[in-house]
Structure formats: structure tokens, C-alpha cells
Design brief:
By secondary structure, the chain is α/β, with parallel strands linked by helices. The chain has a single domain, classed as Alpha-Beta Complex (Spore Coat Polysaccharide Biosynthesis Protein SpsA, Chain A). It has a 7-stranded mixed sheet, sandwiched between helices. It has a two-stranded antiparallel sheet with strand order 5-9. Helix 5 packs across helix 6 and helix 7 crosses helix 8. It is globular and about 55 Å long. It starts with a strand and ends in an 8-residue tail after the last strand.
């Protein structure tokens, strides 16, 4: 059986989202030995969760409460600090405000991930190919215009970092697929190596007093253009508000923060 470690930063009110995420994971994902690693200051809330769900393996890593944007920017630093405790064969970073909707499909195949890493195409910037793309643009002509403008002005779809002083800056000629920071995963050794690299990039920006445009996600996308990896479907970060995702399977959903029960 594959061992899967799910790593999440959940400070302040995000511990409530995390609890729902873990429950959905445990209810839907089969054929994995699951461990949930959570960074939080909400120790009492985690202990209460453990009492309610004694069968779920939760490993808590205490940190101070983090506000925006450090709760997201420091994720690589935090994960890098506990690599000795991450023994699972497959490791996944998952934002707290996610819900697993169904069992993982055949696309979750770690042995086939190039470079041992699976990055998820950002649901807002992913586009179908072939006839489905034509249908999308015929139905939403304004999207065709905005996509064309973005490609011409920015080199590709995505919220790329334009700050040349940041280690996360990506030249326009290298801007292809844009990946989401909420879900990414890899085989144990490759995941840890990736986190080390990303932590070093963030630390270098901090040393020079620079902040990446989209924080951790900017650094992730810079890493992606420079390293071998596989591209996974936005089904692993599904957002129902994007009409171009209709027809894709929904595996992990980014929840509506105004409706925690969704």
C-alpha cells in the first residue's frame, strides 16, 4: 500500500477548513495509508479533532500564528524544517481550504511523474485543447480576446512575477504552463529536494528585501520552468466558478470560503 503524507499550513481560522479537508480525504481516498501533517498554533483544536477521529493519523507541528502573506510564503521553509519527519513514500502539499470530492483516478501515478514531481495546472489559466478550445472561445468570445492580449503582453497565461529583482522572475519567452500553489506533490526524495530549492529562493528574496508578486506561487512557477516534472489536471484544484473546467472530473475542490460546508 502506498503511504501518502498530506502537508498543510493551517493557522488561525484555517484550522476549521483543515478539519473538513482531512475528513473529506479520509472518506474518499482509498488504497493509501494516510498521514496528515499540519502546521498550526491551534493545538487544542487539533487535539479535539484527534479525539473525534482516532483512526486518522495526524502529526501536528507547532508554529506561531501567521498572517498574510507569510502563512503561504513560508510554507517551503516550514516543510523544509521537518523533512526528517516526512517518511511517507508520496508527499503532497495541500491548502487547508480544499475538499476531496472523489477517489484519485489513474492520473495519480507517482511512478510515472517525470522528475518525481506532479504539479497541477492552475484552474484559472488552464485551457482545453483542440475542438474543446474552439467551443470555449465561440461561447465566450471575450475570453479569446483577453487570452490573446495576455499572451501578447505577458508571454503566456498566468500571474507571472514581473519583478526582475526577485528570484521568481520568469522571462516572457519561458512562460508556458502556469501552476497553482495550492496543490503539488512528489515522491519523497524529489519532493524534499524541491522544497529545499524553493526555500532557498524565498530566503534569497528575503535577504535582498524583495517580495515575489504571488509569493509562494511565483517561486513554484519559476522552479517549474527550470526543472523536470509532470503536469497534472486542474481536477486536483477544481474551481466550479470557471466555466472552461466543465467536463473535467472533479477530484479536489477549492472550497467557497463563504460556504464551508460545500
Amino acid at each position: 500500500m502506498i503511504t501518502l503524507g498530506v502537508v498543510t499550513v493551517a493557522t488561525n481560522q484555517y484550522i476549521d477548513y483543515w478539519a473538513k479537508m482531512v475528513e473529506s480525504f479520509y472518506e474518499n481516498v482509498r488504497d493509501f495509508d494516510l498521514t496528515f501533517h499540519v502546521f498550526t498554533e491551534q493545538l487544542a483544536a487539533v487535539e479535539e479533532f484527534r479525539e473525534l477521529h482516532p483512526a486518522i493519523d495526524v502529526q501536528v507541528h507547532e508554529i506561531e500564528a501567521l498572517g498574510w502573506p507569510f502563512a503561504t510564503l513560508y510554507r517551503y521553509k516550514l516543510i523544509n524544517s521537518i523533512t526528517d519527519h516526512l517518511d511517507e513514500s508520496i508527499l503532497m502539499h495541500l491548502d487547508a481550504d480544499m475538499l476531496v470530492r472523489t477517489n484519485f483516478d489513474s492520473s495519480f501515478s507517482p511512478d510515472s511523474w517525470e522528475g518525481g514531481i506532479g504539479l497541477v495546472a492552475h484552474p484559472g489559466f488552464w485551457r482545453p485543447r483542440g475542438p474543446e478550445l474552439v467551443k470555449l472561445y465561440l461561447h465566450y468570445p471575450r475570453k479569446l480576446v483577453s487570452d490573446f492580449r495576455s499572451i501578447m503582453e505577458n508571454g503566456g497565461l498566468g500571474s507571472w512575477c514581473d519583478n526582475r529583482a526577485s528570484t521568481s522572475f520568469v522571462p516572457k519567452r519561458m512562460r508556458d504552463t502556469y501552476y497553482c500553489g495550492g496543490t503539488w506533490m512528489g515522491r519523497n526524495a524529489e519532493f524534499k529536494e524541491m522544497v529545499t530549492d524553493l526555500n532557498e529562493s524565498v530566503s534569497q528574496d528575503e535577504f535582498t528585501g524583495v517580495m515575489a508578486t504571488w509569493h509562494d506561487e511565483s517561486h513554484l512557477n519559476k522552479w517549474a520552468v527550470s526543472n523536470t516534472h509532470s503536469t497534472l489536471s486542474p481536477s486536483y484544484c477544481f474551481d466550479p466558478s470557471y466555466p472552461h473546467l466543465r467536463g473535467l472530473g472533479e477530484i479536489i475542490r477549492a472550497v467557497d470560503k463563504n460556504a464551508l460546508s460545500k
